[in-house]
Amino acid sequence: NGSRTEKDVSNLVVMGETKRIALVAHNNKKTELIECLRQHRDILSKHKLYGTGTTGSLVEKELQIPVTKFESGPLGGDQQLGAKITARELDILIFFIDPLDSHPHNSDVQALLRLA
């Protein structure tokens, strides 16, 4: 019938004009992420950006856009972003994953992806 239940409505995220965007990239994908973000710099500069330590620092340096930085992924940054997602304090997660490389913090990555 197309009607929404109360649960459906409570799960909707109301986003304002300014989005809260998290940026994450595995080491072998950081260059690719920067190239992609460079193409959309003007759009990204209008939003609030977050990132894990190394990725956030690289984005700030290369794009000259402020980024709120958390710890590096293996040091808890993925978990910090996960907490922001759970608290509905992030609207978008952009994650450039390297599926061909093993990651010692893979369980954190998988948890982050499940939350997103």
From TrEMBL:
It comes from the Eukaryota. One of its GO terms (molecular function) is methylglyoxal synthase activity. Residues 13-116 form the MGS-like domain. Pfam families: MGS. GO terms for biological process: methylglyoxal biosynthetic process. Coiled coil: none annotated. InterPro entries: Methylgl_synth (IPR004363), Methylglyoxal_synth_AS (IPR018148), MGS-like_dom (IPR011607), MGS-like_dom_sf (IPR036914). GO terms for cellular component: cytosol. This is MGS-like domain-containing protein. It comes from Rotaria sordida.
